[in-house]
């Protein structure tokens, strides 16, 4: 269990984390989301005592990280996978870490196997790919068999097999009753992995809710409708909604509409009353990504400007392809 109360971090004039309070509960995966610069890494660093809060407190299992006698057994951390002595082998790196807590070499071998590093365990870490470095960071986090895990972007640089492996690993750690705090910018991955999410924006908590509640609460009901009399149905729905509502009707193709702010049942009933035939009526489930983008639209610190020059826009598009 992680408990943050009024946690604040100021770097000079910059307030990176601004009075955040939350708890991360055992037995589930809690996703930690937010645009670049939102304060996620700073919060994680404060949780594990690498940064001192300007104000407020944060505890892990009831104590501040630095007050735990054997922190590796309490909290496993992956913060910066590159922060490893590159001249050492993975095996020696983990052995050195294990020695600080009298963790037996058998456990070192165990985590090497668990993270799929067996074949490269005696190679220099300096030659590791980003993905192998991530696996080593995860191995280090698991070394002390901790009750709480904090993983900052653990799938960064992993191939699809690795991404799936991390997903299964964190799900199984949570199923064992552990507390897992996980940050990632990959929304589709987060949607599959997290039970609960905490969203930060400009140093504040924007949302703290079960994933499903967050998605359904943030996004309006949306329905795709196809009908040979689509325009007529759209007009009727707008009239029924009345002025001043957030209902929107967007034509998306010939005889096709996206209706935002009506349930499929209500659209179907309205069509039946008017005798308008429907060829399709599909509720569209909002994604975590859409809900997240809606929520954080005003809290993005680094925004990509729309490109006004068409030639430049095309060049950028081609580069991105
Ligand atoms: N050591 C530091 N000195 C000054 N400013 C800092 C320092 N560390 C972080 N910041 C600033 O604090 C804010 C929060 O940064 P932080 O790295 O915690 O965000 P983040 O949510 O982890 O972002 P990202 O998704 O890019 O990793 C940013 O504006 C950042 O520039």
From TrEMBL:
Residues 2-227 form the ABC transporter domain. The keyword Transport applies. This is ABC transporter ATP-binding protein. One of its GO terms (molecular function) is ATP hydrolysis activity. CDD domains: ABC_BcrA_bacitracin_resist. It comes from the Bacteria. Belongs to the ABC transporter superfamily. Pfam families: ABC_tran. Keywords: ATP-binding, Nucleotide-binding, Transport. The keyword Metal-binding does not apply. PANTHER family: ABC TRANSPORTER, ATP-BINDING PROTEIN.
């Amino acid at each position: 269990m992680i408990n943050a109360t009024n946690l604040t971090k100021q770097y000079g004039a910059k307030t990176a984390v601004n009075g955040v309070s939350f708890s991360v509960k055992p037995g589930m995966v809690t996703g930690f989301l937010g645009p670049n610069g939102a304060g996620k890494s700073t919060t994680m660093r404060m949780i594990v005592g690498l940064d001192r809060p300007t104000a407020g407190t944060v505890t892990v299992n009831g104590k501040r990280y630095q007050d735990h006698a054997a922190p590796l057994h309490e909290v496993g951390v992956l913060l910066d996978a590159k922060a490893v002595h590159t001249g050492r082998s993975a095996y020696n790196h983990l052995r050195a870490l294990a020695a600080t807590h009298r963790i037996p070499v058998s456990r070192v071998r165990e985590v090497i196997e668990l993270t799929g590093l067996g074949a490269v365990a005696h190679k220099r870490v300096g030659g590791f790919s980003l993905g192998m470095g991530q696996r080593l960071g995860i191995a280090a986090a698991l070394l002390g068999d901790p009750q709480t895990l904090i993983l900052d972007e653990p799938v960064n640089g992993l191939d699809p097999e690795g991404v799936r492996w991390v997903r299964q690993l964190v799900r199984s750690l949570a199923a064992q009753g552990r507390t897992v705090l996980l940050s990632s910018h990959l929304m589709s991955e987060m949607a599959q992995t997290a039970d609960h999410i905490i969203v930060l924006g400009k140093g504040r908590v924007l949302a703290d809710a079960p994933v499903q509640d967050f998605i359904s609460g943030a996004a309006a009901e949306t329905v795709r409708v196809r009908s040979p009399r689509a325009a007529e149905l759209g007009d009727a729905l707008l009239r029924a909604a009345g002025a001043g509502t957030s209902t929107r009707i967007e034509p998306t193709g010939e005889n096709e509409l996206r209706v935002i702010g009506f349930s499929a049942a209500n659209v179907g009933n309205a069509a039946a009353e008017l005798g308008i035939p429907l060829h399709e009526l599909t509720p569209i489930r909002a994604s975590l990504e859409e809900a997240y983008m809606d929520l954080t639209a005003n809290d993005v610190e680094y925004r990509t400007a729309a490109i006004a020059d068409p030639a430049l826009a095309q060049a950028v598009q081609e580069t991105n392809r």
